[in-house]
Amino acid sequence: MSTPSVYESAFLAAPFGAFLCRPDGVFARVNAAYEQLTGYREQDLIGQRKFLALHDPAEVVRRVGPLPATSAGALAQFRGEWAYVRRNGTRVPVSLAMAPLTGALEEHYAGHYIGIAVDTTRHAHAEARLWYVSNHDSATRLPNRELFLERLDLSLARSRRSGEPLTVLVIEIDDLQKTREALGPEGADLALEYAGARLRRLAHAQCGDVPMGFIGGDQFALALPGRGDDASQAAQDLVEAFAQGDDPAPGPMQTPHEARAQGRRNARVNLNVGTARHPADGDDAATLVRRAGVAVSEARRAGRGQVCRFVRAQEQRATRQLELENALRHAIDGRELFLLYQPRVSLQTGAIVQSEALLRWRHPVHGLVSPGEFIPIAEEAALIDAIGAWVMETACRETGQLQRLARTLPKVAVNVSPQQFTNPQFAAQVEAALERAALAPEQLEIEITESMLFADAGRTVRTLHALRALGIEVAVDDFGTGYSNLAWLASLPLNRLKIDRSFVAKMASDPRSEALVGAIISMAHALEMKVTAEGIETAAQAERLRELGCDEAQGFWFSRPITLQALRTLLAPVPFLLAGGTCEA
Ligand code: C2E
Ligand code: MG
Ligand code: MG
Asked: Is the pTM for the entire model greater than 0.85?
């Protein structure tokens, strides 16, 4: 190449490593970029070394087999991603292209090969980063669902070979939604990160190096190989250690990030755990994780800090729930919801003074579904706001109509869920519903449960005052089943306590229940609250409650929940309607 051609100039000046080699693989030319890439000078390579000498021999043996004779076919095999070992012994990832020489240069170098080697260190970093980002959760920096499933697959393959069982744990942070509401999304991410770091340390201390991941929502997953029956014990130990803050000393591997997370020790977090076992509960990773997920929903329902093992009946329940949840989305538009009204009777006069609106859902296939079943589903699926607004709207409208038709003024009580009550817009929504229905605020009572008084005290008190300022009354439903702090209760602007029907039912057989009912009535009166007893099923119960000074009563003894029409008839009997029989539901 005494007078460099345009091709040769391009070859020499190329910004990537380029070389020519003889058919036997020995270097014939290299450019400056190739010298820089490999750390070898031109004179160390040309006529001295084969291009294969720069490769990592172990990699060549692994990928191509015993070093091949450098024939045309064999050289072409070196296209692709390789590692070079540079002169100073360090490795560098390269992308290699090899092709027989054709065109202008070929007359000088017949049968030679041209090779291009591009340093891909930056790509490799970018790729590794990309892999990391797409396989890890950003808040907890743990493997995400996909990567966890891949690792679980490997563990499953191992346990199939060894015949050892394997247990999958799905672990969730209890009430993360509350944390999210209280601290915002960033605070919730920190709580997750903290929980993830602690879980990883605790799991490592107890079970060694086991697959772990963050599988979305607020759930972590863990696989405990070879633990058979004591997996539940291991899970229980984990929950207890977590709740007690029993942390193994942070290891030297702890990053500053983890150390910060661990510093937030006073952020108390409880866990619910669901477990599924291989092979009994499933053979593939996705099924095991799904079933452990079903079990964790069961654990959540059972109360915080529970470990629940998957059983097949749960799956049927979960399937029905999912089906109901989907159907519930169309229930309002499909006119499948309606209200019944249960009369509330004054124990002094025997007159109907109020009714409680009770929601009913007629599912096109399953028929009537009980509110005890579908209201929790609506709450979990964030459908309760829409459903609750429909109930409020309908109860106010229908009661307005009833009052105009029956010419008496029985009030209406409407049950509300915690999500509705803590919504800052709630009082305004109720006020708008009353206005549309032309119903006076004092004709409406709102029923909340005891636990709602303590869950989010600040917001509850604000809503309570806003409702009372409008003239709306507030009753505490199912009273006696929670753990009310009486001093706190006394400080709230409440109008009524509704004694739970479990006390009424036990009154006759258990003197302590009767004493409790008496005490609740006296206490409520002392605090200037009225008392309603729920679930009166016998005349004796009604009589005893009257003697104890209870103001009002509600129960099957007086009337089951009935349609608006039937309530109208009860309030202002019309002879020909009474002949038509009852409208009980
Ligand atoms: P709750 O508010 O305590 O309503 C009283 C429940 O007891 C009603 O059940 C009623 O039918 C039943 N009941 C009344 N008297 C008797 C009796 O003498 N004996 C017996 N064994 N039961 C009696 P229902 O209608 O199935 O409602 C169950 C719960 O569902 C309600 O309990 C309430 O917590 C909830 N709920 C009902 N409607 C709504 C609603 O519109 N919104 C919300 N958030 N919850 C609702
Ligand atoms: Mg109620
Ligand atoms: Mg009740």
From this structure: no
